[in-house]
Amino acid sequence: MADDKVRYETYRSPAGGWGAAAATARVLMQQSVLGKGSRALLAMNQPGGFKCPSCAFPDADCRKTLEFCENGAKALAHEATKFRVTRAFFEQHTVTQLRQQSDYWLEMQGRLTEPVRYDASTDRFVPCAWDEAFDLIGRHLRALASPDEAEFYTSGRTPNEAAFLYSVFAREFGTNNFPDCSNMCHEPTSRGLPPSIGVGKGTVILEDFDHAEAIFVIGQNPGTNSPRMMTNLVEAHRRGVPIVAVNPMPERALIRFADPQDVVQMATFGSTPIASEFVHVRIGGDMALLKGMMKVMFEQDAAGDAVLDHEFIRDHTAGLEALRQDVIGTEWTDIVRASGVEEAQIRRCAEIYIRSRATIICYGMGLTQHQLGSQLLQQVANLLLLRGNFGKPGAGISPIRGHSNVQGDRTVGIDEKPSQAYLDRLRDVFGFEPPRQPGHHTIACIAAMEAGTAKVFVGMGGNFARAVPDTDRAYAAMRRLDLTVGIATKLNKGHLIHGRDALILPVIARSEVLRTAAGEQFVTIEDSMSNVTASRGVLEPASPDLLGEVEIVCRMAMATLPQSKVPWDSYMRDYGLIREKIAEVYPHIYEGFAERIRSPRGFHLDVPPRRRVWDTPNGKANFLVAPGVEVNTPVDDAGMLRLATIRSHDQFNTTIYSYNDRYRGVYNDRMVIFVNADDRVARGLPERARVTVETITTDGVVRRVEGLTLVDYPMPRGALAGYYPELNPLLPLEHHDKVSGTPAAKSIPVRIVAGSETAPAQTPA
Length: 765
Ligand SMILES: Nc1nc2c(c(=O)[nH]1)N[C@H]1C(S)=C(S)[C@@H](COP(=O)(O)OP(=O)(O)OC[C@H]3O[C@@H](n4cnc5c(=O)[nH]c(N)nc54)[C@H](O)[C@@H]3O)O[C@H]1N2
Ligand SMILES: Nc1nc2c(c(=O)[nH]1)N[C@H]1C(S)=C(S)[C@@H](COP(=O)(O)OP(=O)(O)OC[C@H]3O[C@@H](n4cnc5c(=O)[nH]c(N)nc54)[C@H](O)[C@@H]3O)O[C@H]1N2
Ligand SMILES: [Mo]
Description:
Blueprint: E1 7-8, E2 15-16, H1 17-30, H2 34-43, H3 70-79, E3 84-85, H4 87-92, H5 95-100, H6 103-108, E4 111-112, E5 116-119, E6 124-127, H7 130-143, E7 150-154, H8 160-173, H9 187-192, H10 194-197, H11 208-211, E8 214-218, H12 222-225, H13 229-238, E9 243-246, H14 252-255, E10 256-258, H15 263-268, E11 272-273, E12 277-279, H16 286-302, H17 310-316, E13 317-318, H18 320-328, H19 332-339, H20 343-355, E14 359-363, H21 365-368, H22 373-386, E15 396-399, H23 406-411, H24 420-430, H25 442-451, E16 456-460, H26 464-467, H27 471-479, E17 483-488, H28 493-496, E18 501-506, E19 514-516, E20 519-521, E21 523-526, E22 531-535, H29 549-560, H30 568-571, H31 575-585, H32 587-590, H33 593-596, E23 603-604, E24 621-622, E25 641-646, E26 651-652, E27 655-656, E28 666-667, E29 672-675, H34 677-682, E30 689-695, E31 704-712, E32 719-723, E33 748-758
Parallel strand pairs: 2-10, 3-4, 7-16, 8-9, 8-14, 9-12, 13-24, 14-15, 16-17, 17-18, 25-32, 29-31
Antiparallel strand pairs: 1-28, 5-6, 5-18, 10-11, 19-20, 21-22, 22-23, 25-33, 26-27, 29-32, 30-31, 30-33
The protein binds ligand MGD (2 copies) and molybdenum atom (MO).
Residues 54-55, 71, 185, 218-221, 224-226, 246-249, 251, 281, 283-284, 286, 364-366, 402-403, 644, 646-647, 651-653, 746 line the site of one ligand MGD.
């Protein structure tokens, strides 16, 4: 069978295993970096080496020599690629032509090599000296009527040092406009959990997985998006720990996994079953499921069974009775209808939870990206609090973050609603008065662009226009800007949706050596479990004309703020001086940063709930009530289906590595919609029908994506899934969680409006 033929089949092997090993070798060869890439892989996540640029899962304690996974290897191979985007490339293609190209094609062109500026007379990006680029940025920013006309976006690969200075720069300039990739991701964690447990982070560390007696994995696909977590799940399974997976898609790695680093399993083609209980929840059915489990507990408590940790509840919490009322008052019929899960299975899940003396609940985008995402997470915390699952080994809440430093960026100042206490410290440490008004998150930033009140957009990494909702509106909004700046390793579509003036500034990547006038520098990142570690690149930079992100921030600041109180010049030489300032601004967590970072495995930032200390107004952990069982506004349309936009196995967010999604059996196609066969048949559509999907809204805007192929898949009734970012045109900006501003990308109300005959087999562009 030709390798580029579109096909859909059922993947029957375990996830991981030889499939993963082969895929690793393939991507190194494809990027022509087999030797260089393999050497770099040996330094990844090792003391003295660099941190994997892929996901935010922590590394294990030296247990494995090769602490990487297939998808980490892909990220590295694409970063270390031998392909280059040169000035000749930009001469050959107008921007209008480049915009027609796919995300995949743009990614495959390789690394950016020198700064470029948009030239409208030729519709091309042309080379531009670094000084000229900073000068242009400074002129635009200083010309603004108000600093709030600038937007400073951050994507989560940016290391702590660069993110910290970026936030200092924007605040000295005078704005809190910090749209961030996290606003589309774990913002419900950052906003929903503080009123509940006093911190917007996870409370679990890796060692806890060795002590847990039950693990729940809800709305998360670790086999693809955090594969190093599979090691912990395999080990837990071997210890006989029940693992409950809650997902509308029976993700392969949640069912069966072969550890590519387990020699015996590889030699014998063995594998480990993962989930002891697979809960096939409806999209958005988790609120009902969680309430159902709590209802079982309150019922047993009423019957006199010791299922609640009364001592913990008495000493550490407030609000139990209101929660009890709400949950007891919720009817089983509603719970079963909304969750799509039978009462018997919910009772089994509750039993697993009750029997365990230490439970971890992990979750991902399947919980955060709903209209009531923040409140949903508060129910997860409620469930954990009922049995005192905080501040003891093997227990806690574990949001599995996305980008490798997305959590760190937030910790060191990327926050559009900073606390007044933090702003006071910033003032005291740097001697300028920071702005006190909240700024824009991602959704507010797009609204400001649409309104014409945003004029300059600086993107520190990322692919803003592709990652955000409502693609057509976002593109139009970006085009209204006076200046767009993309600071990046690779060319992406976001750079091509630009303002009147535009710059693309190429950076030294995570895996590459950072040299300054003061010698070799390292940076630091914070993983999903609050461990801060050093990262030192080992490869030569992709081009001599690249700058580190820290230097780019410092030079933007110097070009914009000639009277600045901040010694930018010294920071871009010696990153140790930046860490000193981080320690001064955040003494409660970063005191002694310089010494503590010398430890080969870094250090852990204090998370108070681990000590049963609750940084809430009443000093308690709070049971918080969310009315009802739905996480989305009901839609009055009998033909409505809920669409979850998800990641394939071969992408990192908007970076597309290939058109395959091995574990879901899809090859050479991304324009697919996974559907329950009964929902398809009910619409009179044949298998593999070519369809158009349309969003159901009341705002009068028609949002459609055409040319999608229906693929039968074990989805619950009423649920669809398809790939992000191709389906982002269907996601309305207004369809988001009001608490956090996070787009409800997992529950778009849609209908199938047009179907035709079976899609012809075809080869993607
Ligand atoms: N290789 C790779 N690694 C990555 C990324 C990548 O793109 N590629 N992205 C990184 C980033 S930024 C992030 S945030 C993480 C994302 O990691 P995940 O959170 O795992 O990402 P998704 O694929 O968006 O969706 C997760 C799961 O949610 C399920 N789901 C959808 N709707 C619901 C629901 O209503 N309830 C429940 N219970 N489940 C639901 C989907 O079926 C899917 O299995 O991964 C990070 N790591
Ligand atoms: N419909 C839908 N939309 C979603 C999601 C979803 O599940 N569904 N998920 C959301 C989530 S969780 C997230 S996190 C966002 C992601 O949004 P972003 O973070 O904005 O997007 P990425 O695709 O991760 O950004 C990739 C680009 O980052 C640049 N880059 C890579 N490495 C580096 C580096 O080391 N330094 C710098 N400066 N640049 C670098 C490269 O140019 C690359 O093209 O998307 C969100 N959008
Ligand atoms: Mo994310």
